[in-house]
């Protein structure tokens, strides 16, 4: 067991610079530190240090062929890790970075080979969260960072989520409060003439098309998985699964009510994840536990992982979650829900 430090910047704003430097020092000596980004909390290590990066895989129980994303603070740092950058990447960086977008480009070998999982490409992004940027600048290193959770579980959007999963496994957690976007970055393959979305996220297809015109979607993302070596995180393995089996319910609130009634008749306790409007229409039952995901799709994205973590074994037997339109950020929401669900029930 590791004695995990926790730096609470939210409660100690006047000491934030000192705390960030302490956390940066752990990264400099090759340890792992979790920190907030605008999407989810990441588990960081020096991306140029193979042994440090190996600690990420060990702490998370992450498969070795699942590549990591390198986080940098500036465009110059990004360009120092890659080669052969198409012109449209400049337009994307100008518009969306810092922000929830990751660029997959040919690696120049600066980052350790276990960051790229042996691929010739590397995913790099510039996060917009001020704590993430301050930490990267303080250590002067590119930081390899997947989500700071046990592999396969819902991603963490608060420091408490990280603590629940990784306390005793990592050197420290920088508590910068809840994250904003709630789903991970959009990963876009920039190795071809036309960019290809490998994973939907905080920047939508529609937003990308406004800037660069045609954008393709990787067939593996459409199918939800790939048997090949994944080009980006989230492409091959089951992710985001809550402790309790979750069913996706496709249809209106009446269909959701029918499924709830059938489960209760079978003696089951039911957890429901849905937007506020749907929950208000459902009949309350003694054995139904509801968790609101908010109203807009942006609310749902921000609250999704907290919702998936909110139900525990012993409290409910089944989680039911409604489906959402796959437009805008709804595409990223449904990508995560399909990977988390054990069953999809159509009307």
Automatic annotation (TrEMBL):
InterPro entries: DHBP_synth_RibB-like_a/b_dom, Sua5-like_dom, Sua5/YwlC_C, Sua5_C, T(6)A37_SUA5, TC-AMP_synthase_SUA5. Keywords: ATP-binding, Cytoplasm, Nucleotide-binding, Nucleotidyltransferase, Transferase, tRNA processing. It is an enzyme of class 2 (transferase). GO terms for cellular component: cytoplasm. Its main location: cytoplasm. ATP binds at residues 62, 66, 121, 147, 155, 199, 240. PROSITE patterns: YRDC. One of its GO terms (molecular function) is double-stranded RNA binding. It is found in: Cytoplasm. It comes from the Bacteria. One of its GO terms (biological process) is regulation of translational fidelity. The keyword Transcription regulation does not apply. SUPFAM superfamilies: YrdC/RibB. Residues 17-203 form the YrdC-like domain. It catalyses: L-threonine + hydrogencarbonate + ATP = L-threonylcarbamoyladenylate + diphosphate + H2O. L-threonine binds at residues 39, 71, 125, 145, 185. Its EC number is 2.7.7.87. The keyword Nucleotide-binding applies. Required for the formation of a threonylcarbamoyl group on adenosine at position 37 (t(6)A37) in tRNAs that read codons beginning with adenine. Belongs to the SUA5 family. This is Threonylcarbamoyl-AMP synthase.
């Amino acid at each position: 067991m590791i004695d995990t430090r926790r730096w609470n910047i939210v409660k100690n704003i006047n000491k934030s610079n000192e705390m960030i430097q302490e956390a940066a020092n752990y990264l400099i000596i090759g340890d792992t530190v979790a920190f907030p980004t605008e999407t989810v909390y990441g588990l960081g290590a020096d991306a140029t240090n193979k042994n440090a990066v190996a600690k990420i895989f060990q702490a998370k129980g992450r498969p070795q062929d699942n590549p990591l994303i390198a986080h940098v603070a500036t465009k110059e740092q990004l360009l120092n890790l890659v080669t052969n950058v198409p012109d449209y990447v400049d337009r994307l960086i100008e518009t969306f970075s810092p922000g929830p977008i990751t660029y997959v480009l040919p690696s120049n070998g600066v980052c350790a080979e276990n960051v790229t999982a042996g691929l010739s490409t590397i995913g790099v992004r510039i996060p917009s969260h001020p704590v993430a940027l301050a930490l990267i600048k303080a250590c002067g290193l590119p930081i390899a960072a997947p989500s700071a959770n046990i592999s396969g579980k819902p991603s963490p959007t608060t420091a408490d989520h990280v603590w629940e999963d990784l306390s005793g496994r990592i050197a420290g957690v920088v508590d910068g409060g809840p994250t904003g976007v709630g789903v991970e970055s959009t990963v876009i393959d920039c190795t071809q003439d036309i960019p290809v979305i490998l994973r939907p996220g905080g920047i939508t297809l529609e937003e990308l098309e406004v800037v660069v015109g045609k954008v393709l979607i990787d067939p593996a993302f459409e199918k939800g998985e790939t048997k090949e070596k994944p080009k980006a995180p989230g492409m091959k393995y089951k992710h985001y699964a809550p402790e309790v089996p979750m069913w996706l319910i496709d249809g209106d609130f009446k269909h959701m009510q029918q499924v709830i009634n059938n489960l209760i008749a079978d003696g089951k306790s039911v957890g429901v994840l849905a937007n506020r409007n749907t929950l208000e229409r459902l009949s309350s039952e003694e054995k139904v536990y509801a968790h609101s995901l908010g109203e807009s799709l942006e609310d749902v994205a921000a609250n999704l992982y907290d919702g998936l973590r909110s139900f525990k074994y012993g409290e409910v037997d089944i989680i039911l979650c409604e489906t959402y339109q796959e437009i805008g950020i709804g595409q990223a929401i449904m990508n995560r829900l399909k990977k988390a669900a054990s069953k999809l029930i159509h009307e």
